[in-house]
Structure formats: C-alpha cells, structure tokens
Design brief:
GO terms for molecular function: hydrolase activity. The chain is built from 8 helices and 6 strands; from the N terminus they run βαβαβαβαααβαβα. By secondary structure, the chain is α/β, with parallel strands linked by helices. Strands 2-1-3-4-5-6 form a 6-stranded parallel β-sheet, with helices on both faces. The mean pLDDT is 92.
C-alpha cells in the first residue's frame, strides 16, 4: 500500500566552495551534520577533487562563470539556495553572487564567507604568494594548516600539487573590485579563527561595506582552518544564521 506520508520539502540548497589547493573532501562530513531538510552540495573547482582532469582557472571571474553555468538548473529550481565559501571559496561565493546580481538573476538567500577578508579596490598591488620559492611557500602553507603533510613532505607529491596551489593563490591574491561596486542585497555572515594571523578581524569586518544586510563576524578558536578538528561549532552557527535568513525571506514574501 503506498505511503500517505509526503516527502519533507527541501528548505534550502547550500553550495559549499573549498579553499585554495583543496576540494570537496574537506567538507565531506557536512551533509550529515546539517539539517535533514537542507541539500548540501559540495563543489569542486576545475583541477580539484572530482574535476581533477580539468585545467584549473587562474581568474576568479572565469571560475565563477564556470560554476554558475554548471549550477544553472539548480539555481532555477523553486527551492531557495545559499553559498558558503572558505578562503578561496569565499572569493568565489561573493563573485558568483555579484555576477548574479549584475545579470538580474535570482540571488542566494544567504552568503557565508569564511577566513577571507574583503577584497581590496582595483589599483592596489596584489599579494604574490604564488611567486614564493618552494621552501617559503611550503612554510606558509604549514602555518595556515589544511594542506596534508604528505603533500608538503614528499618531493613527488609537491611537484604534482604545487602548480595547482600556485594557480589558486594567484586567483585569490589578484582579485580586486572596481571602486563603486554596488553593495549586495543579500544577508551575509562572516566567519574566522581567532588565531588566524593571515586574516585579521578588521579585514573580515570589511565585508560589511559590500552588503546591505551584514550579519556580523563570528570568531572561533583556532587558525585559518579553525573548523577542521571539530566542525560542530561552525555548523551550529551556520544553521542558525541561514535559518534566520530563510525566516526573514519568508516574512518578506508573506502577504500583508
């Protein structure tokens, strides 16, 4: 006899974007730790994870367009969607949202940006981490954490992954905004580690200048990869922040 129980409606589709040199594998446990009514989609950039055989992109705009094209059917779905990005992923989440806004398309109900400060204006000289020699770059990555020790310690593994890491870092460090870029009309919350020496709190807070609905900065114990050992505190905060954005959207859409 067919069940009379209707499937639970999808509350939101959350797209998660990874850091430089990373992949969806960093977040592989997240879908089962977030609410069951959410569909959590872990994305890979070309050259990473499930797209390892593709040429990596060194430009944030081109990569944002690539990801938006792949997500096109899902972004047309009636269910609301949201973006969360960590480090390089934060740059991509913002740029994808900005491009949707410029094109007059449906926007995410919420934007979560982690461990990345707001981009500088055009004309400001970019950082050049991708030009560091191998020893200096390896030392930088060790300080950040998040890169497997076998990649840094094995000459063969380093030779394989260093070009990809350098391409990603060039993408991040060269990303700037044109002065006067309009603020996004999207709820935005920013996350970071208290001990992250590469992204001071004031740079995290600078995202408030790029959105009309800034929800604040949430800091956690740890460094650049503050959630790796225990993602529960971050995921609890994301659950609350995104749920609040969904509730505000429903209230705004309700008839008077």
């Amino acid at each position: 006899m067919p069940s009379s129980t209707s499937p639970t409606p999808l509350a939101v589709r959350l797209f998660v974007l990874h850091h430089a040199g990373g992949s969806h594998l960093t977040f592989r446990h997240w879908p089962r730790l977030l609410p069951g009514t959410w569909q959590v989609r872990l994305l890979d950039a070309p050259g990473h994870g499930r797209l390892l055989d593709m040429e990596p992109a060194a430009d944030a705009g081109r990569l944002a367009d690539f990801l938006l094209e792949r997500l096109e059917p899902e972004l047309h779905d009636p269910a609301p969607f949201a973006f969360f990005g960590h480090s390089m992923g934060a740059v991509l989440a913002y740029e994808m949202t900005r491009r949707l806004a410029v094109r007059g398309r449906a926007l995410p109900v919420w934007l979560g940006l982690s461990a990345r400060g707001a981009p500088p204006g055009a004309g400001r000289g970019p950082r050049a981490r991708h030009t560091l020699d191998d020893a200096a770059l390896q030392a930088h990555l060790r300080r950040l954490g998040g890169t497997p020790a076998e990649v840094l310690d094995s000459p063969a593994m380093w030779a394989r992954f260093a070009p990809l890491i350098r391409t990603d870092l060039r993408l991040v460090d060269s990303y700037t905004l044109t002065p006067g870029t309009p603020r996004l009309p999207v709820a935005c919350c920013v996350y970071g580690g208290r001990a992250d020496g590469t992204v001071p709190r004031e740079r995290l807070a600078a995202w408030q200048d790029l959105t009309h609905r800034f929800g604040g900065v949430r800091l956690f114990d740890g460094g650049h990869f503050y959630f790796l050992d225990d993602p529960a505190p971050l995921l609890a905060q994301i659950t609350g922040d995104l749920s609040a954005a969904l509730a505000a959207t429903r209230t705004a859409a309700a008839p008077n």
